[in-house]
């Protein structure tokens, strides 16, 4: 089974399931997801935009994304 462009490409230590096409934030979650050659729901994980992680992890990512946006915005407006 191959991935199409709708699949979220794993970056850094993320892992992508080539069977159900979910992307996990870590190999640990992926291992928990693949049990006995089958895809299983991992308790405590939340899917957002195709990325599966703990709610805390999503919150951290959202904070970083906001931080990076702010940094970029500052650079755009008159850094000396
Ligand atoms: Zn895929
Ligand atoms: Zn899967």
Describe the fold and architecture.
The model has no long low-confidence stretch (mean pLDDT 92). 36% of the residues lie in helices and 18% in strands. The chain is an alpha+beta fold and 80 residues long. It has one domain. The protein contains two helices and six strands. It has a four-stranded mixed beta sheet. A two-stranded antiparallel ribbon has the order 3-4. A hairpin with a 6-residue loop joins strand 1 (15-16) and strand 2. The structure holds zinc ion (2 copies). One zinc ion is lined by residues 17, 19-20, 22, 33, 39.
Enumerate the strands of the largest sheet in spatial order, edge to edge or round the barrel.
1-2-6-5
Classify the secondary structure makeup into a structural class.
Answer: alpha+beta
- Helix and strand pattern: EEHEEEEH
* Helical percentage: 25-40%
Small molecules bound: zinc ion
- How many E-type strands? 6
Q: Per the principal axes of the C-alpha atoms, what is the gross shape? A: elongated
Write down the domain tally.
1
| Intertermini distance | 51 Å
What fraction of the residues are assigned to beta strands by DSSP? 15-25%
- Total helices: the number is 2
Low-confidence stretches: none
Rg of Cα set: 16 Å
